[in-house]
């Protein structure tokens, strides 16, 4: 049996084979992740069965706690509170950090003057910023979100400063020739060139912010995943600690896979060249 001929006389590969190959290529990454997670759960279950202790509950115990907290509504309430803080701190950090970074990257004198400030804030421990924020502004929501944003802003500044330094001046000259207004310059000249740097700052920002938010909640909030982890730490309920941790990590993974990675691929699509 021969392969079907194409319009130019050459014999093409069977479509059924190419379709199966595409399906296999699509499913293999997901299958690999599933097998990897299953192997991790099996190792966890084996360790829990060998070391029988409240300090290491098995996957089944953690799952039961997760279902209990979800049924009561506590899980979704505290997840929502934490995600709200993550979103607010992320937006504040990205806006302020991007503006400062572009300005420093565009003006050398300002960059030389403020560079020590950037280095200083990059090296201040997150815990110190959180504690000072609560002392200076009180145990309130604004202090919590502000402390998280302040921890992230220097990282955004550094990334966006490099993006501003890499701007092609010929595009700015073209904008001048065609008499682009400020908004047109930002939309058609600045943002397209900064997209890869915005994507990089965004991805690293979410990864850093959600970890700091848990510390903020542990120290000074009355709700959220960090507050629940602190509560169950005092009760020595490791199963509940793991349940809330895994639930929050799962939510952040979904955000990473469905939002952050597609945005990053779109922003860096110009780097991919056809083979």
Overview of this protein structure:
With 275 residues, the chain is mainly alpha-helical. The chain has one domain (59-271): MetI-like (MetI-like fold), CATH 1.10.3720. The chain has helices at residues 15-50, 59-72, 74-106, 108-123, 126-137, 141-165, 169-177, 182-220, 225-234, 238-267. Helix 5 packs across helix 8. The longest helix is centred in the last third of the chain and has 39 residues, at 182-220. It is globular, with a radius of gyration of 25 Å. The two termini are 31 Å apart. The mean pLDDT is 83.
Question: How are the SSEs placed, and which strands pair?
Answer:
Blueprint: H1 15-50, H2 59-72, H3 74-106, H4 108-123, H5 126-137, H6 141-165, H7 169-177, H8 182-220, H9 225-234, H10 238-267
Note the run of SSEs as H and E. HHHHHHHHHH
CATH class: Mainly Alpha
The assigned CATH architecture is Orthogonal Bundle
* Secondary structural class: mainly alpha
Query: Globular, elongated, flat, extended or rod-shaped: what is the shape?
Result: globular
Q: pLDDT below 50 for ≥5 consecutive residues: which ranges?
A: none
* CATH evolutionary superfamily: MetI-like
Number of domains: 1
Our Rg estimate from Cα atoms comes to 25 Å
The fraction of residues in strands falls at under 5%
- Count of alpha and pi helical runs: 10
Question: Helical percent range?
Answer: over 70%
Overall strand count: 0
Overview in brief:
The protein has ten helices and no strands.
Give descriptors for this structure.
single chain; 275 residues; mainly alpha; MetI-like fold; 81% helix
């Amino acid at each position: 049996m021969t392969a079907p001929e194409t319009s130019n006389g050459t014999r093409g590969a069977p479509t059924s084979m190419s379709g199966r190959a595409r399906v296999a290529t699509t499913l293999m990454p997901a299958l690999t992740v599933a097998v990897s997670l299953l192997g991790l759960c099996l190792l966890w279950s084996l360790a829990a069965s060998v070391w029988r202790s409240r300090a290491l509950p098995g996957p089944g115990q953690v799952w039961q706690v997760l279902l209990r907290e979800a049924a009561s509504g506590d899980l979704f309430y505290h997840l929502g509170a934490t995600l709200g803080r993550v979103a607010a701190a992320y937006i504040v950090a990205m806006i302020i950090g991007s503006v400062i970074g572009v300005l420093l990257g565009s003006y050398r004198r300002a960059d030389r003057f403020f560079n020590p400030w950037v280095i200083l804030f990059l090296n201040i421990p997150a815990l110190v910023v959180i504690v000072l924020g609560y002392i200076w502004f009180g145990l309130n929501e604004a202090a919590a979100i502000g402390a998280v944003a302040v921890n992230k802003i220097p990282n955004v500044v550094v990334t966006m400063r490099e993006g501003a330094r890499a701007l092609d001046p010929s595009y700015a000259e073209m904008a001048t020739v065609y008499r682009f207004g400020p908004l047109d310059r930002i939309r058609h000249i600045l943002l397209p060139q900064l997209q890869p740097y915005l994507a990089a700052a965004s991805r690293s920002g979410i990864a850093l912010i959600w970890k700091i938010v848990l510390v903020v909640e542990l120290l000074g909030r009355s709700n959220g995943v960090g507050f629940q982890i602190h509560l169950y730490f005092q009760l020595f309920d490791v199963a509940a600690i793991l349940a809330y941790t895994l639930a929050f990590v799962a939510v952040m993974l979904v955000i990473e896979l469905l939002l952050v990675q597609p945005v990053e691929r779109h922003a860096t699509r110009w780097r991919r060249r056809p083979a």
